[in-house]
Amino acid sequence: MISGSRDSCFPASAVSTIKVGDRLNSTSQLVSPGGNFTLGFFTIPETKYTYLGIWYTVDDSLSRKVWVANPSTPIISNSSVLMINPDTGKLIIDTGGITLVNISDNQSGPTSNLTATLQDIGDFQLKNEVDNQILWKSFDYPTNVLLPGMKLGSDLRTGTRNWKLTSWLSDKVPDYGAFTMSWEPNGENSQRLLIRQRGQPYWTSGDMNDQTFKFMFVNAPWSEYWYNLSYVYNNEERYFSYHGFNGNTPMWILTSNGQVLDDESSALWSPECVAGSNLPQCRSEDDQFFQRNGDFAPDMTEGSSYDDNSSVSFSDCMVRCWNDCSCLGFITNSNGTGCLRWTGAKSVNNFLVNPQGISVAKHGLIAEERQKDDEKHLLELMDSSNTEKGGRKGSHMMVFSFSAIVTATNDFSDENKLGQGGFGPVYKKY
């Protein structure tokens, strides 16, 4: 429920507004007046981190968030609440009386006349009820999703408003990722969307003509009849927006690998890689990565390197491998971050092996099945007649299953990390 320091009476049905003194906790939610959208706290099971977000109410899986309030500041406490700070007038996430996140940037000062309402279009608005002035709204701070009516572009009147999408770091980490999508017209007669990777141009939609783009709807041709595209180009604002029809939950999602999907998870745009002018000398336009189950033969690689930086995304790892002429393939952690790369000679056709005997392509990327194959092969080397505490004991060493190790180290958490040496990190038992 929504609780507060003052007496507040809420109807039995869902509410869409909080006032000064109200607190939205982890077990309560706001629902827009027409029931289209829901706002509340959600936890990603793989990381156990909690975020405040907005999603379509009909999305029972809660797998697609249209907006996240704290992408870079995950919550680890279930006592966090959403509230309006009575001293500053800002929307905040509070944990035990301490402000964890300032969501809004308004400078209202002490006041009791503010409300925050989830609109039926998916916009979360902070408003002064005295003069009906909107002080802040989530549509001005998009994350990775463009909803109907949202803007991509710039407000020339203020010079500070710039609306753009930023991808998640991975499908399981909402932190800011490698890709952005913005509206960057090249003069009045050249209106276009541009995707950048770490600030560098990655892909363009081409100029917008007759309410469509040259490279749009190639993979989802039926989507052309779902959207009404428009743009504004004047001395005050320059932005792109769209409206949906014939679709129940329209949304454009900029994914962590630089694709743009619509509400049916069909690719509106599927950029493959950077322009040919950015190719390293050792690569050709015919070169590409293929995802395969398997591994590199130990005696056919020159080494490997591992970066466990949690801000490194899958696409970052791919770029590192692509730009390294000696890189044979790569893999990321289970949450889609970090980077493990194998290096060797340029010709790698025989450098990949597969337990099932399936042939692999020139440039390889290992799937997550590798850890299962490694475990199977290690266990086959051991005497399986003796088992002890989840492991199998041979004549000289004991091999534990991967699942047993994950449990023992609390999923390789930093709290259980003792240190790191030349062979990698060392963990204590959880």
How would you characterize the overall build of this protein?
There is one protein chain. The protein has 430 residues and is mainly β. The chain has four domains: 1-141, Bulb-type lectin domain (Agglutinin, subunit A, Orthogonal Prism), CATH 2.90.10; 142-272, Agglutinin, subunit A, CATH 2.90.10; 276-369, no CATH class; 381-427, no CATH class. Helices cover 7% and strands 38% of the residues. It is built from three helices and 39 strands. The strands form 13 sheets. Strands 2-11-12-13 form a four-stranded antiparallel beta sheet, with no helix packed on it. It has a four-stranded antiparallel beta sheet with strand order 4-5-6-7, with no helix packed on it. A hairpin with a 2-residue loop joins β9 (91-95) and β10 (98-102). The two termini are 35 Å apart. The model is unreliable at 1-12, 355-366 and 377-399 (pLDDT under 50).
CA radius of gyration is: 25 Å
**What name goes with the CATH superfamily of the largest domain?**
Bulb-type lectin domain
Query: How far apart are the first and last residues' alpha carbons, in Å?
Result: 35 Å
Count of structural domains: 4
Short description:
By secondary structure, the chain is mainly beta. The protein has four domains: 1-141, Agglutinin, subunit A (Orthogonal Prism), CATH 2.90.10.10; 142-272, Orthogonal Prism (Agglutinin, subunit A); 276-369, no CATH class; 381-427, no CATH class. It has a four-stranded antiparallel β-sheet, with no helix packed on it. The protein has a four-stranded antiparallel β-sheet with strand order 4-5-6-7, with no helix packed on it. It has a four-stranded antiparallel β-sheet with strand order 14-25-26-27, with no helix packed on it.
